[in-house]
Design goal:
By secondary structure, this protein is α/β, with parallel strands linked by helices. Among the domains are: 3-74; 83-174, OB fold (Dihydrolipoamide Acetyltransferase, E2P), CATH 2.40.50; 457-501; 512-735, Metallo-beta-lactamase, Chain A (4-Layer Sandwich). It contains 24 helices and 23 strands. The strands form four sheets. The chain has a seven-stranded mixed beta sheet. Helix 5 runs antiparallel to helix 6 (200-208), helix 8 packs across helix 9 (253-270) and helix 16 (457-476) runs antiparallel to helix 17. The termini are far apart.
Length: 736
Amino acid sequence: MRRIVYLALGFAAACGLSLYSDRWEIRLIGTGLVLLLGILAERKPGAVRRFLVSLLGCALGFAWFGGYTAHHVQPISDLDGETVACAIRVSDYSRETDYGSAVDGTIHMGGNPYRVTVYLKQVREVKPGDIMTGQFRLRVTAQTGEDPSSYYQGKGVFLLAYQKDELRLSSEECALRDVPAIIRYRIQGILETYIPSDCVAFAKALLLGDTSQLPYRVDTDLKVSGIRHVVAVSGLHISAFFAIVSTITFRKRFLTALVGPPLLLLFAAVAGFTPSVTRACIMCGLMLVAQLLNKEYDGPSALSFAVLIMLAVNPYCIGSVSFQLSVASVAGIFLFAPGIREKLTAGLKNKKGKQYGLLRKLAAGVSVTIGAQILTIPLCAYYFGVVSLVGVFTNLLVLWTVSLTFCLLVAVCVLALVCLPLAVIAGSVAGVLIRYVLTAAKIMAAFPWAAVYTVSPYVTIWLFFAYCLLLIYLVCRKMAGAFTCCTILSLCLALTASWLEPCSSDVRFTVLDVGQGQCLIMQSGGRVYVVDCGGDSDTGSADAAAETLLSQGYSHIDGLILTHTDRDHAGGAENLLSRIRTDLLILPRQTQKIVVPKDTQVVIAEQNLEITDGSGKISIFAPVFHGEENEMSLCVLFETEKCDILITGDRNAFGERSLLRHADIPNVDVLIAGHHGSKYSSCQELLEATRPQIVCISVGADNSYGHPAQEVLDRLSSFGCTVYRTDQQGTITIRR
């Protein structure tokens, strides 16, 4: 049976190599490494057999990925960016977005059906069975070598459709395939009715995997404390669901095997067939079959079978973060948990008593948690930039509660149909447990070393060093204590270097890469100010600023200055304020309402302001005339002995000339190009007055505005400015 492990290893490697690279030399090197791993994976005879099975898996994987791409992806590749008239059948209920609403559906192109996510201009309520007809701009999400970790690829969504004109809606009767979406919608309504309001978002995430309504602060606490996985429906949830099924079938083997698979399939459909829940359901189904046939259940073989099935259905799934984390966590448990448990319980052998039994259970929980994290930590570091250091402890505190809460939420949904008073009671108890989980996550996330962030290069180096030590230990199997001490000591050195490095410069100015937006950090003499916090994503811009500061040892800043409240400059401000303690918030007049913590002083800059300390001076220039919001942007001049920096927000040429007429602006070392490099900003007069040596442009790589404009780049070139762009250089750091 273990041959399937090496077959799946080769197949998955081929799919991954095909997705991440179209260069054959890289594919050949990768294939060679996989074959070598297949040979050395077990210290047992049969290396040639493992080599041949892995080689067969690679060959099948390359052939299957190529065939799937030719049949399912290439036919729609020419539609990328095109506007076409089409009809889309809705397969789910619409959900509100920041710019309208979105809904999933199915579209037929070239004779093939494709799952599509549709983005509508307005908030509209549509339901399964509706037909939307109109003009849509299409975007292809799955192209070899492009964004292989796409969220959409994991869902099997290869097309996005953006509404271009008025829609025509018609309806047809709901089909069997619409039932899961209808059930999910009804469950959401039940949870909103019977679960306390402050717990509803977490309840939806825990039961259905819908994390869209989780508050930023809660989501961050879960991530930093190392339990974000509890809201991704996976093995933990399927185990609890299977326990419920076993209970209602009185643990009768035949009855459980008869009822279990259909219920698991329905649950996976209701949860949206995410990679993690699909993997868990396939493995659980195999366990039921093994029990029915009186066969031994082999976990690694079941995992490999699940991987093969999922990649056969959608080989692009290999690039999904959810797929990678789910498979890596289970593989880590199979590979490392037994050995860790054996070492932890080495001194408990032949000892009896309740206390020793409790210690063995504790050791089992620790070993499973550590085993799962060994392979998932590098993925979390790469995709999310976070490595939780308290995850083991937090998991021990809450996992038992999570399973119980899941069962209670299922009970609430059932009781809501048969006995409303009991549903209310079950919902209240579930609310208590949810508050316990959220409180535990909040407390653990508040510890100073709760997590480290790979935005610091020193942390990245430490992580690489730690896994090198782990590899050496796995080879020699000796000196576990010495390797552990080296890992801890190197972490302390990495954190010390991260905290001391900003102090090596008198002035440090950072332009964060937040896509189409702006977020700047000014540091001098121990004082830290953030100017603007917005970008492609509200959470992304807040995370970028917070994690940059936290990685340098700053959990508190002196001030946040918002030039104006457009979303690309201020969308992440509330999130940042909830995560980083801020003394002062400076806003422009006629500003939108922003939720501010009680200990933050708010100042509306209706007139010019000046902040002076021993390290320099910050001048904030209010607009003189009323106009459109861009022209009402605050301007910020940061002056020190070593460096002068000018920020003009989104002011166009009119606002820049107004600034020059009403303020004494000196020559500056650094200019932040106005309005992300718009042709109407960074005018000739401003450049003549300031003569900047360096111009930074905060701009997204994929924006529809044409930023930065070639006219601006030509003007900057004529003044001999050195230009840095976040879409090309990423985050920009200037030290003086």
